[in-house]
Specification:
This is Tryptophan--tRNA ligase. By secondary structure, the chain is mainly alpha-helical. The protein contains 13 helices and 5 strands. The strands form 2 sheets. A 3-stranded parallel β-sheet has the order 1-2-3. The protein has a two-stranded parallel sheet with strand order 4-5. Bound molecules: adenosine-5'-triphosphate and magnesium ion (MG). The site of adenosine-5'-triphosphate has 21 residues, from strand 1 and helix 1.
C-alpha cells in the first residue's frame, strides 16, 4: 500500500479552499492507501501567538477534518506536536539544507508581504515540513498548488540526504489537482486562513452569507452580460454544482439580465446544500469532545511507531548511533 500524508495548520477556521484543495482528496485516499493526516500545530505557531486561540483552533480543525469524512480507523490522525521525533529530524535535515533553497520560497515572501513577522521558524518552515513528510516515509502528498514549491524542497532535501548518507528516505510526490489547485477567496486571491478572505465551512451561517454576498465582482450593469473569465462566482459555483447546473449558470451570466446578487444567492444555496451533512456531523462532534481527544491520542500512538523506526535509521545513517 502506498503511504499518503497531509497536514493542515490550526491557524484559523477551516475554509472551502482547504476542503477542495486538500481534504476532499485526502478522504478519498483512505480506501486506497495507508493514510496519515495531522494537525500542524508547530507550524501554526508561526502565525498564532495566543495560546487560548491555538488550543481552540486545534480542536476545531480536528472536528472539522472528522466531520469532512476522516475515518480515524482507516487513517492515522494526530497532532504534529505529539511526535517529538519530527524536530530531531528537522534539525538533521536543516544541517544539509542550503540556505538559498529556502530564500527562494514564495510562501515565505507572500506571508511577510501579508504582515506575518519574518521569524526564523517562518523561514525554516519548509524544513519542518520536509521532516513531517519524510519521518513517515510518505510517498503521496495531496495538497493545493501553494504547497508545490515546498514539496519540491522536500524532494530536494530527501535526495540530498540519500546521496550523502545512503538510501533512507522515499522520495515524496505531490498530488495536486489542477481544477482545485487554487481556490480563490472572496477577494480573488488564494483563499487562506491568514488572509481574511475565506468562506469558513463551520462558522456562523449569517456571517457565511454575508461573505458570499461580498465576493468581489466588477461593476457590470444588471442587464449586461457578465465576464466569466476570472469570475470568482463561477469558479466557486463549479465546485458545488452538477456540470449541467454549472453550464446553466455560465449561460445565464453570458446572456445578462441579472445582477451579481442573483448569482451570489444561487451560489450560497448550492454551498449550503453541499455542506449540510458535513455541518451536521460537526455539530454532533461538538457534543462529544472526549471522542476527539481519544482519536488524536490513538493516532499519536500509531504515528509514533513509524516515526521511531525512521529516526533510528536516520541516527544510524548520520552517525548519531553506533
Ligand atoms: P495559512 O494561511 O495559515 O497558511 P491556509 O488556509 O493556507 O492557512 P494551510 O493549513 O496552510 O491553510 O493548508 C492546508 C491545505 O489546504 C494545504 O494542502 C494547502 O495547499 C491547501 N489549501 C489552502 N488554501 C487553498 C486554496 N485556496 N486552494 C487550494 N488549496 C488550498
Ligand atoms: Mg497555507
Amino acid at each position: 500500500l502506498k503511504r499518503v500524508l497531509s497536514g493542515i495548520q490550526p491557524s484559523g477556521h477551516l475554509h472551502i479552499g482547504n476542503y477542495f484543495g486538500m481534504i476532499k482528496r485526502a478522504i478519498e485516499w483512505q480506501d486506497k492507501a495507508q493514510t496519515l493526516y495531522f494537525i500542524a500545530d508547530y507550524h501554526a505557531l508561526t502565525s498564532i501567538k495566543d495560546p487560548q486561540n491555538l488550543r481552540q483552533y486545534v480542536r476545531k480543525i480536528a472536528m472539522a477534518f472528522l466531520a469532512c469524512g476522516l475515518d480515524p480507523i482507516k487513517s492515522i490522525f494526530f497532532r504534529q506536536s505529539s511526535i517529538p521525533e519530527v524536530h530531531e529530524l528537522a534539525w538533521i535535515l536543516a544541517s544539509i539544507t542550503p540556505f538559498g533553497l529556502l530564500e527562494r520560497s514564495h510562501s515565505f515572501k507572500d506571508k511577510i508581504a501579508k504582515g506575518l513577522s519574518p521569524t526564523l521558524a517562518l523561514f525554516s518552515y519548509p524544513v519542518l515540513m520536509s521532516a513531517d513528510i519524510l519521518l513517515y516515509q510518505s510517498e503521496i502528498i495531496p495538497v493545493g498548488q501553494d504547497q508545490k514549491q515546498h514539496l519540491e524542497i522536500a524532494r530536494d532535501i530527501a535526495q540530498k540526504f540519500n546521496n550523502t548518507y545512503g538510501e533512507v528516505f522515499r522520495i515524496p510526490e505531490p498530488d495536486i489537482q489542477e481544477e482545485v489547485a487554487v481556490i480563490p477567496g472572496i477577494d480573488g486571491q488564494k483563499m487562506s486562513k491568514s488572509y481574511n478572505n475565506t468562506l469558513e465551512i463551520f462558522g456562523d451561517p449569517q456571517e457565511f452569507k454575508r461573505k458570499v454576498m461580498s465576493i468581489k465582482t466588477d461593476s457590470t450593469p444588471i442587464a449586461a452580460p457578465k465576464p466569466i473569465q476570472g469570475s470568482i462566482l463561477a469558479s466557486l459555483y463549479k465546485l458545488v454544482a452538477q456540470p449541467s447546473e454549472y453550464e446553466e449558470f455560465i449561460e445565464s451570466m453570458k446572456k445578462g439580465g441579472q445582477g451579481y446578487a442573483y448569482y451570489k444567492k444561487l451560489l450560497l444555496e448550492k454551498l449550503n446544500a453541499y455542506f449540510k451533512p458535513i455541518r451536521e456531523r460537526y455539530k454532533e462532534l461538538e457534543c462529544n469532545p472526549g471522542y476527539v481527544d481519544e482519536v488524536l491520542a490513538d493516532g499519536a500512538y500509531r504515528a509514533r511507531l513509524i516515526s521511531q523506526e525512521t529516526i533510528r535509521k536516520v541516527r544510524q545513517a548520520v552517525g548519531l548511533l553506533d
